[in-house]
Amino acid sequence: MGRIGKVIIVLSLFLLSSQTTWASVLDDLNQQIIDKQEAIKKMEEQISIYKKDIEVKQNEALTLNNQLAILKSKISKIELDVRLTETQIESLDLEIASLGKIIEDKKIRISKQKDYLNNLLRLININDQKDYLNVILSNPSFSEFFNQTKYLENLNGQINQALKTLKEEKQDLETKENIAQTKKDKLVILKKELTDYQASLAEQKDAKAYLLAQTKQSENKFRSLLSQLRQEQTSFDQEISALQRKVQKELTKDEKLDTLASVLSWPAEPVKGISTYFRDPTYPFRYLFEHSGLDLPLKVGTPLKAAASGYVAWVRTNSSYGNNIMIIHNDGIATLYAHLSRFNTKEGEFVKRGDVIGYSGGMPGTPGAGFSTGPHLHFEVRVNGIPNDPMDYLK
Predict the structure, then answer these.
(1) Mean pLDDT taken over the chain
(2) 218-392 has CATH 2.70.70.10 classification
(3) 3-state SS, residue 378
(4) What does the DSSP 8-state code read for residue 318?
């Protein structure tokens, strides 16, 4: 075999030997992923059973025992939701790790493929500069010369194949990197969902304890609580609508108000997630009324900020919302902040976006808490008196 042929074989062996294999590592990761996915499937099946059980109970007569049974099933379901989400996060972490190994291996392969290609091109360049008459004369036989010529002819084919392989490796690397990024984005979403599930679980447990404390296991007390809260909620809704219509007419030409009141700032950072969303089907007291805002679990004394500039329509206390503040903004928008531990504004005062208007954390049993299971902010957005989803307005 000629010298060029030997060189090509050495280059090929060099390329093959440099293709780092991660077989055992990848096999272990993939098995762990399979185990996680099987666990996820079983949990999803159990969650489905809990959902059906809750639906059945919700269609039964409204009694104290029935509501306690619903809360018990919801707690079990959300505990499983938490475990499911944690397992999904673990599975995604493993998938990302597996892709990371593949991507690392791809980059090594591409680097070695480039070296291989450069060496082939170098061989072509060297032989193109040779005097082939001297090559013929220096060879002991014509057969050796023709063998070398044949290897030179094959170089072009090998270069083309190397280029094709390099392009395919690069495209595959880009695809794998895109998949990895998609999984990382999904991981961020799952971690946010986990925070919300944990907040919701705490609220469901608090709701059960609160209901037991308020009723003392008495059906009559439960009926009395239902009647009182429903009446107050109806009266409250009517009062908000009437007051907002009255005040709004006086604000239409006020230049101090935000022209972009439809873009609201968060009254507080949801550092512990959102325990209940607008009209949330998991709201523990949905049998009383639809949940008309967002619940943000916050520690006692967290500063609360005005979501936009406006005028404070009221600063008051009642049995449902506890300490609460309503601010009227432009465009028929009003915001409500409830279950406050204390106030930092007064009725009729003009507040700018970001001004501290009060502090969260009305503890159950205190006047500031109202109908509350634990320290949190209940935040509402009302348009012409009608509750709207705050998530449609918050930045």
Answers:
(1) 82
(2) yes
(3) strand
(4) E
pLDDT in tens, 82-136: 999 999 999 999 999 988 988 888 888 888 888 877 887 777 666 655 554 454 4
Closest CA to 67 of 283, 374, 297: 283
16's tokens: 């093959």
Cα–Cα distance for residue pair 123/309, rounded to 1 Å: 74
Q: Where are the beta strands (DSSP E) in 154-255?
A: none
* Sign of the torsion formed by the C-alpha atoms of 384, 230, 292 and 369: positive
Mapping DSSP to helix (H, G, I), strand (E, B) and coil, where does residue 199 land? Answer: helix
HSE-CB of 46 using CA atoms within 13 angstroms: 17
Of 345, 338, 289, 339, nearest to 312 by C-alpha is 345
Write out pLDDT tens, residues 305-348.
999 999 999 999 988 889 999 999 888 889 999 999 999 999 98
Predicted TM-score (pTM) of the model is: 0.72
The domain locations on the chain are 3-213, 218-392
Strands 333-338, 376-383: pairing is antiparallel
